[in-house]
Amino acid sequence: MRVTCRSIAASTIVEPVRHPAPREPRRSALCRCAPHLLGVAATCAATLLATPSAKAAGPLSAPAEPSSTRWYGEQTLIADGASLAVFGLGASTRSLSGFMAVGAIGYALAAPAVHLGHGRVGTAFLDLGQRLAIPGLFGLGGALVACQGGNSTGESFCGLTGFALGLGVGVPAAIAIDAALLAREEVPATPAHTMMLAPMVSHTGGGLGVIGTF
Question: pTM for the complete prediction?
Answer without folding.
Answer: 0.58
